[in-house]
Specification:
By secondary structure, this protein is of the alpha+beta class. Helices cover 19% and strands 33% of the residues. The strands form eleven sheets. The protein has an eight-stranded parallel sheet, covered by helices on one side. The chain has a six-stranded antiparallel sheet with strand order 3-2-4-9-6-7, covered by helices on one side. Strands 1-10-5-8 form a four-stranded antiparallel sheet, with no helix packed on it.
Length: 812
């Protein structure tokens, strides 16, 4: 039987004449940080102080000794970052130039000093560029010339920390006769029967070349066996009455253990392979209709409005992301009613622990191939690396039922058309051959059970603009970059794969990341941790279009920018969800951060939820109530994404800012499963056009047992006919009381009692303590209403401290 020895201990990093203790898996930066050689690049402006690290060559060394009676010993690296030359006992062992694939070296009978020498990624990129020629890039760094995590060269939310190192596990594998080299389970469903076609390849030793081998596969009590005389085999299994895997909110996520065993002709065990699989069908309906060309996920025959978030690497040093951290972040996504996570193309193919968690949580995974915002040469030496990388990762990830889409790239097809690439390319390759040729061929060959898309955005063909909202997937960035979030209401894309709005992280995160700094929007550390072009200008203009922009009041600015982020995303999601099934999904940019930074994330770099996170929980709930402008007035849209009909009474009140009711009505709304019910608001309930003193509020009860903000809680939609800065709202007045919860010393309930209209009340719990948290986002209270906000982990607090952590809209 194959023996495995993990090589996590005994590594050193050569730094000048010193040998520093190295952690494997890890990277140069984390080892230098642990040794006290560099400061923490996440703090202050230290990022610039460590830029030299990415421009040097580095070596990892250890003694490699092994004593095995097996015929063959392989040294296996799951990930090397990136351009490396390996020697063993002073003799060459091999070279690598791709962070995104694994490597195997035959070291049978060889021992001695093992050295893994990493070239500077900049030097490697320059050498490749000298061969392929120049290509355009959105960023001034050479990410397209090296198969490495592109965002390690910096992004508009990420630091420039160009890593090197043994970033994934390394081990020795000792084996005899033969081993399982590649196993591909093709999982399908035929009626009630689950089918698994196991395609496998073996590698043999010289002695095992002519031996007959036995292969078995088992899943859910079904078993198949064959005798293998060559190097490939196919085994077919059938599972009657297989339970289907569903996205969260649509059903359960049953997983089945699939085991493959390789033995010699006498039955002696040689190697095993085991993964969990799930039975489900998935397709993307890209049919043409009267609205254009659709893009709708269909899982087990059910059409799905995708409630998505974009995922970037959760740390600028990916080797630090543990299975527990994956689980925490993805659980946050699931608890915000997310059902799809898009793994963005400027990052990495994540660790198996990421996809395992998605399998269990019911989170569909849209997986980009790793190309983003640049023109990529298609010549050697890159082309063979791209093919090997794609093959490695398609085979590695295809067992996961959560994986529902392979996507060719991020924004490169769009970039070719709109970003002035065509002229400087002058006919040179730029990646189109990957996205429309190589990658779809690989997916069709290796993983034909899943759909492939050429890019995001992509209209489906060059017959339409790549980012045409009426065709395929669309990225909506004009609102953030140049206009206003109200512009989201001007179109109904078929599928919004990216859109978002920036906001700073939680205050406690800023205080940790910028120690000793007097915080201001333009203080040195704040500006350093704002990587977007004119980021603060866009933040300020986003606030000023709706609310007075404060001067010399950082706390108020911090609240308003976080509020506008939540409002902006709400404007888009409410509008687009109300137009299901024409629009079939939204993927918010972005769920997470890789360091403490002002960005589009819902969860900041320290893992603290922003107000946007809680807003997503409301926006992505099965039931959503929204008031939408229409050509002939105002429409009440009741969005029902549950499997049961939604019958509810909606109370509509036309009110004045002083709290008096002008008119009131109760509408009986009925929304069928997975549908939207639209009802015209009666004319007598409409606020006067451009009125500064009237608004409309709609209230309904959230059905108990649902995934809304809370069982039995109220659903509320608000329509104000003017911008808040023009709205004659009285100065907000409210009382605050604290109610400790018996038996829960870590919890206190904050009770806010409104005397006036209180718009967008928000408690920032980290102001009560860095570990404090609450499950409540922004909410609007009418006069006489109360809000109860449970707070955990804050310790003893006073009413005054809570008042200082409470904010609301106040334009007087």
């Amino acid at each position: 039987m194959k023996d495995v020895t993990q090589l996590t201990e005994g590594w050193s990093l050569r730094h000048g004449e010193e040998l520093l203790t190295a952690r494997v898996p890890g990277c140069v930066h984390t080892d230098l940080l642990a040794a006290g050689v560099i400061p923490d690049p996440f703090l202050g402006r230290n990022e610039t102080e460590v830029a030299w690290v990415g421009r040097q060559a580095w070596s990892y060394v250890r003694h490699l000794g092994h004593d095995s009676s097996h015929e063959r010993t392989d040294l296996v690296f799951d990930g090397l970052d990136t351009a490396a030359s390996l020697t063993l006992d002073g003799r060459p062992l091999g070279t690598t130039r791709n962070m995104h694939r694994g490597y195997r070296f035959d070291v049978t009978g060889r021992t001695g000093a093992l050295e893994v020498r990493f070239a500077s990624a900049y030097d490697e990129a320059a050498a490749v560029r000298a061969v392929t020629g120049e290509r355009p890039n959105v960023y001034p760094e050479p990410s397209q010339y090296i198969r490495k995590m592109a965002c390690s060269f910096g992004w508009d939310w990420g630091p420039t920390l160009v890593t090197a190192g043994i970033w994934r596990p390394v081990r020795l594998e000792h084996w005899s006769t033969a081993r399982l080299a590649r196993v591909r389970p093709l999982v399908t469903v035929d009626g009630a029967t689950g089918r698994v076609e196991v395609r496998l390849e073996v590698e043999r030793t010289a002695r095992g070349r002519d031996r007959a081998l036995r292969v078995t596969a088992e899943v859910a009590g079904a078993r198949a066996e064959t005798v293998l005389t060559g190097d490939e085999a196919v085994l077919r299994l059938e599972v009657p009455d297989a339970r289907l895997w569903w996205p969260r909110g649509y059903g359960d996520q049953p997983l089945y253990d699939l085991a493959v065993a390789l033995s010699d002709e006498e039955g002696g065990p040689l190697d095993t392979w085991q993964r969990r699989i799930g039975f489900r069908t998935v397709e993307v309906d890209r049919s043409a209709d009267e609205h254009g060309t659709g893009f709708t996920f269909v899982v087990n025959g059910v059409r799905v409005f995708a409630r998505g978030v974009n995922w970037i690497p959760d740390d600028a040093f990916p080797s630090r992301v543990t299975p527990e951290r994956y689980r925490t972040r993805l659980t946050q996504a699931a608890e915000a009613n997310v059902d799809l996570v898009r793994v963005w193309g400027g990052g990495i193919y994540e660790d198996d622990a990421f996809y395992d968690a998605c399998d269990e949580l019911g989170l569909m995974v849209w997986q980009d191939f790793l190309f983003a915002c640049a023109a990529y040469p298609e010549e050697q030496p890159l082309r063979s690396e791209v093919e090997a990388e794609a093959r490695d990762n398609v085979v590695r990830l295809m067992p996961h039922p959560s994986l529902v889409l392979w996507n060719g790239n991020n924004e490169n097809l769009w970039g070719f058309r709109d970003w002035d690439w065509e002229a400087p390319l002058a006919g040179d390759s730029w990646g189109e051959g990957y996205y429309l040729g190589l990658l779809p061929r690989i997916v069709a060959e290796l993983d034909p059970t899943r759909p492939y898309a050429a890019g995001s955005p992509w209209s489906g063909s060059w017959d339409h603009h790549p980012n045409d909202p009426a065709h395929g997937t669309h990225h909506s960035w004009e609102a953030w970059n140049r206009r206003d979030y109200a512009d989201y209401l001007e179109s109904v894309p078929r599928f919004v794969a990216e859109f978002g709005w920036q906001a700073p992280p939680a205050l406690a995160t800023l205080r940790r990341a910028l120690p000793g700094e007097r915080l201001a929007p333009d203080s040195p550390g704040m500006l350093h941790h704002q990587k977007a072009e004119d980021g603060n200008g866009k933040l300020n203009r986003g606030v000023a279009r709706h609310l007075p922009l404060p001067e010399d009041d950082f706390d108020r600015w911090h609240y308003l920018t976080q509020l506008v982020q939540a409002r902006a995303v709400a404007a888009g999601v409410e509008h687009w969800r109300s137009h299901w099934p024409v629009c079939a999904g939204t993927i918010v940019w972005q769920l997470n951060d890789c360091w403490p930074v002002t960005s589009w994330s819902a969860v900041d770099g320290d893992g603290r939820p922003k107000p946007l996170y809680h807003e997503l929980r409301r926006l992505y709930a099965d039931h959503l109530l929204t008031l939408r402008p229409a050509a002939d007035g105002l429409v009440l849209a009741a969005v029902n994404q549950s499997a049961a009909p939604w019958r509810t009474a909606v109370t509509l009140r036309r009110m004045r800012t002083d709290g008096t009711t002008v008119a009131e009505a109760v509408l009986q709304v009925s929304a069928e499963p997975r549908s939207v019910a639209r009802t015209a608001v009666p004319e007598r309930l409409l606020p006067e056009a451009r009125s500064a003193k009237e608004f409309l509020v709609a209230d309904a009860a959230e059905p108990s047992g649902t995934d809304g903000p809370g069982p039995g809680t109220a659903l509320r939609a608000l329509h104000v006919p003017v911008a808040d800065k023009d709205f004659a709202c009285p100065r907000p007045r409210y009382d605050v009381t604290l109610e400790p919860v018996p038996g829960r010393g870590d919890r206190v309930d904050v009770v806010v009692s409104a005397h006036t209209l209180v718009r967008d009340l928000l408690l920032q719990p980290d102001r009560l303590g860095p570990d404090a948290a609450c499950d409540s986002g922004r909410q609007t209270l009418l006069p006489g209403e109360q809000a109860r906000i449970p707070v955990h982990g804050c310790g003893p607090v006073t009413v005054d401290a809570v008042r200082a952590a409470l904010f609301c809209v106040d334009v007087v």
